[in-house]
Amino acid sequence: MTSDLHAPLDLLAFEGLYRATVGRVHTLARRLCGREHADEATQEVFLRAWRKRGSFRGEAAPAAWLSRLARNELVNQARARARRDEAELGEEPPARLAGQRANRGSDLKIDLERALADLPDGARWVFVLHDVEGQAHAEISERLGISVGTSKSQLHRARALLRAALYPWSEADDE
Amino acid sequence: MSDVEHRGAEELSAWIDGDLLPDESAAIERHVAACAECGRSVRELRAVVAAAGELGVSEPEADLWPRLERRLTGSRPRPWITMLVGLAAGLLLSWALDLRRSTGPTEPATEATGERFVLVLHESPELLADASPEEIAAVVDRYRNWADDLGSRGKLEGGEKLANAEGRWLRDENGTTTVEAREQRGGLGGFFVIRAVDYDEAVAISRTCPHLEYGGWIELRRIEET
Predict the structure, then answer these.
(1) How much is the pTM?
(2) A28 and A67 co-located in one domain
(3) Prediction ipTM score
(4) Residue A103 lies in a domain
(5) How far apart are CA A41 and CA A21, in angstroms?
């Protein structure tokens, strides 16, 4: 269905594209912008895609075109929201995350998804883009307007915080 | 020699990714091979990275498409049928319901062109003050036909009639928001959203709106797409 998506995209084809990709977009929106903003952020992605549909020339698969657009748009939204929040509340980077695992047998992926939400913004964005989305530091640094070195240090910080949250018993042993 | 000290998780993560200089990397490699605790930290970090790569995708809880579709096309399923002149509320309701039945569903224009304009309908205070039911019915018909015609040409995006009852007026006074219930008389009666290539076309369309014939005036504004 997605192969003959021309510019201008008509509404029917666009709905098809929406149905095929909304899960991915919404999931990324939850991870980058936070659960409470995910619906609105997702709508903004598709509104932007609809407005920019004229620039889609079929050089890539529609889903890939939309994924790229979604990543850019969601990162921009997340950063804009963080700037607003920071202006209102001031920054409060947590030194460590709450322990997420009730016991060693619980599902690591479910616990990770929960722990992710508590990461400080910068570390979370880099972790999601690098380890979840598979982006390279070069792309991430450009997208976030930071250096490659900062992107790497944020990633390692995120993993260290997540590991401490997901293996609290190890942390206790270390101390 | 620092080989005997435990390594921080951030450093171990950098080592996993090959971000360290060769001699630093070799030192950590030796340490991790010899130290059970740091070996475990590395395994845990790798497990976190592996889990991240396997995180699933889930659909939004609510279907976002209906609302999105309205925002995409700038239209509502059948908006303008309730766009009537300011009439006594009871009369209005019965006619509006009749109109709903008689017009049926309208498909939103799929490929909208041009810009969107809003016609803000301001009403004259004496509008239809002592009109007979027949006269009011005729007015309702005029609005409906006008909207029907625009809709069939893909020029109408939407419209609503605002209730005649009290509205709420909000204003900020020295940091405190005051809210006042105020009767609306001869003020803002409703709006249409139309599509036109420029102000010239939008004015030409607005000129034909029956609202002008009934003593009301129209404020025409281009919608800035944001």
Answers:
(1) 0.59
(2) yes
(3) 0.86
(4) yes
(5) 14
